[in-house]
Structure to design on (164 residues):
């Protein structure tokens, strides 16, 4: 699908990226991850259900319990992805902010950030955007800032060029 990144060392500047297109890419990525989590959850449940009782004592019960724990882990992951999906849908991609807040697409002198959900680096139209939740450390630093403001993160000084 073209969402994975091989490296973050090159940084082409975006020229005409629309937040609505970026949101669509993120939604497609979240759908893919939800499908993977659902498939893994079902496989874990089937594995737990198919463990046959053996003469090895409580090996059967241990196997079922481990399968159930695995299934629960995937179910929690699926639920978190569903929340992220709904949160992306709630973002009004037509709004252009004059300061950084939820839904803002931020161009700095070093990178692009979209304050939405925790997806990490996303590739869209050959451009790399770091998709972050408001709770991420870098988003905590960025929120409330405006174009022209500078900030320091991990010992590096950055300048906010534009907020979309």
């Amino acid at each position: 699908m073209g969402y994975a990144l091989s490296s973050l060392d090159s940084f082409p500047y975006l020229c005409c990226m629309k937040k609505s297109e970026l949101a669509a890419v993120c939604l497609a990525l979240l759908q893919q991850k939800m499908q993977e989590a659902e498939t893994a959850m079902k496989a874990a449940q089937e594995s737990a259900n198919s463990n046959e009782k053996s003469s090895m004592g409580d090996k059967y019960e241990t196997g079922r319990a481990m399968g159930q724990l695995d299934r629960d882990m995937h179910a929690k992951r699926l639920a978190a992805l569903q929340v992220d999906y709904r949160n992306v849908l709630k973002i009004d991609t037509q709004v252009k902010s004059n300061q950084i807040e939820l839904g803002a697409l931020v161009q700095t002198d070093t990178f692009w950030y979209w304050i939405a959900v925790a997806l990490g680096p996303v590739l869209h139209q050959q451009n790399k955007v770091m998709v972050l939740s408001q709770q991420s450390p870098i988003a905590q630093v960025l929120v409330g800032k405006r174009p022209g403001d500078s900030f320091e993160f991990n010992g590096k000084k950055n300048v906010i060029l534009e907020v979309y």
